Amino acid sequence: MNHTSLEIFRIVAEELSIVKAAKRLGRVQSNITTRIQQLEEELDTQLFIRENKRLRLSPQGKQFLIYTKKILSLAQEARQSLHPTMPGGTLSLGTMECTAASRLAEPLAAFSKACPDVRVSLSTHHTQLLTEKVMLSELDCALVALPLKKDGEVVCPDNLSFQPLFTEELLLVLPTGMNLIRNLGDISEGRLAAFARGCTYREIATAVLTKMAGSGKQVQIQEVSSYHSMLACVASGSYMCMLPQSVLDLMQLPDGLSILPAGSATTQLIWRKDYSSPAMDKLLRLLQNTSNISA
């Protein structure tokens, strides 16, 4: 079992296709197949279940993938530690959709200029999934909005570190004719357009609307995949949505819609306490340069 075999296994596990993995790795399919077979023989277990020319991870394969990602991440971290003044390799960065849209262009451009030998792998998800991916070493770091306890304390897993970077002012966007201040009963008839469960903004919006509507009323949720979809839902007349002011500033608000202040949320950079790299340190410094939170 060597680094190359682990990397091939990781790519095949992500693609669940020998053909796609071969294209991604620039290798012939027979070589990929042989490497996987050799790895399975060495481990004395079946990593993939083959069904009608399709692949899926076996239970053992799923377990081994977790360790594979940790080993590959640690190997990269070790290489970078030998050249602390010359960041290189890959930095796997996760981020919320809103942060990617409104906060990352400037610092990532500066990072690319300062660290030309680092390849940034960027992916967007909601906070809960991003946090899980950082904990599993699938991401090196991520920009999230960690949930808060009732006393305002940040809820962060014990094995993660975090650095607050941005305060986002949240806005509740309402369709034409819906006035929540005069007629709280409208809440029970309207629905909230939001990202999938695990999005902190969704949880904040649900809490705000539930409090306004009173006990016994539940907020109906329509899941969408983008902020543009949220506004389209609101424009249709029967939905509400919550989005950060920084995102709204980048978009055109359809005529007739109204907005209400709905509090604020903090965006943090999170990373594993046992992880460090010159590339992430440099990115954090650049993000702090654009932060709207006083040090």
Structure explained in plain terms:
There is one protein chain. The protein has helices at residues 3-15, 18-25, 29-43, 59-81, 97-102, 105-114, 127-135, 186-189, 200-213, 227-235, 245-248, 278-289, and strands at 48-51, 54-57, 89-95, 118-124, 141-144, 160-174, 191-194, 220-223, 239-244, 258-272. The chain has 295 residues and is an alpha/beta fold. The strands form two sheets. Strands 4-3-5-10-6-9-7-8 form an eight-stranded mixed sheet, sandwiched between helices. A two-stranded antiparallel ribbon has the order 1-2.
Topology, element by element:
Layout: H1 3-15, H2 18-25, H3 29-43, E1 48-51, E2 54-57, H4 59-81, E3 89-95, H5 97-102, H6 105-114, E4 118-124, H7 127-135, E5 141-144, E6 160-174, H8 186-189, E7 191-194, H9 200-213, E8 220-223, H10 227-235, E9 239-244, H11 245-248, E10 258-272, H12 278-289
